[in-house]
Amino acid sequence: xxxxxxxxxxxxxxxxxxxxxxxxxxxxxxxxxxxxxxxxxxxxxxxxxxxxxxxxxxxxxxxxxxxxxxxxxxxxxxxxxxxxxxxxxxxxxxxxxxxxxxxxxxxxxxxxxxxxxxxxxxxxxxxxxxxxxxxxxxxxxxxxxxxxxxxxxxxxxxxxxxxxxxxxxxxxxxxxxxxxxxxxxxxxxxxxxxxxxxxxxxxxxxxxxxxxxxxxxxxxxxxxxxxxxxxxxxxxxxxxxxxxxxxxxxxxxxxxxxxxxxxxxxxxxxxxxxxxxxxxxxxxxxxxxxxxxxxxxxxxxxxxxxxxxxxxxxxxxxxxxxxxxxxxxxxxxxxxxxxxxxxxxxxxxxxxxxxxx
Length: 357
Hints:
By secondary structure, the chain is of the alpha/beta class. It has helices at residues 38-47, 51-54, 66-72, 88-94, 96-99, 124-134, 153-165, 182-212, 231-236, 244-259, 339-346; strands at residues 3-9, 13-19, 25-32, 57-64, 79-84, 105-108, 140-143, 170-172, 219-222, 228-229, 267-271, 275-280, 308-313, 355-356. It has a domain at 79-194: 3-Layer(aba) Sandwich (Rossmann fold).
């Protein structure tokens, strides 16, 4: 019999479950989350599962609070943001100066107008000087050009320069978003860049743990819209995994809903070690929930069938998140349900959610 292994790293506990071919939970274990190194807690909880069953695991799904906490707690790797065509006012509106030192936010000549026509030539000399100057102080780069979604030439040229001069991770605004809104797109790119090194380190550590337990199966990460991301996708665009925990619980909410006869729509609560979440579902009986990744600026998602989630710190303090992120307006499901089992079930296609390539 084949099993799916679901793992969830929360603020306090790390859970792992095995789900069989009939979508039944056969084993569930829990360990303390090790905030200093999440992989330690993951290794501890996997070690508690039957080792014989681990040899038959065909899929591993991981949901983690790493990227969500990176935003909420203002954590992440040091990054530099290159902004051709942006004005000082737009940079102020973006909120970048609230999360990054001013010297890491570099305004350059360049950018395009609303129809994709070059507004001014890209100042490659200034860009190269900034990259060379700051590369020893950062772990990744983010790039967002004015109207970059209408013409990405300047962004792509800067990405080429960063790659040639540093070899560091680099992401462009047009690769993350397709909507207008330069300040929000710049913040999205910066937040994404800050998450790349820690998510890459976590994935590498989990791969070593799986190898140690002789688990030869694909590893996927749960995204904030409920779908699954390949490792390459998760490393390049980790911002897509923000709120992956609540998104994974959608699967549990869906299963629970179909398994019982409810007369009214549920109000669900999820209280974790770092965050608390409350959600109210509407018209859930119409079918399996569909999610929209509105928790992150301009991240493309699926149409919403129901629900609104409200987040705040578990410590009951006011949630401090950059205004542009609008994380408190995220539309997703939440349920006091094992995230790990939901992650495992999501890998089975229970709700026919898409997988990112």
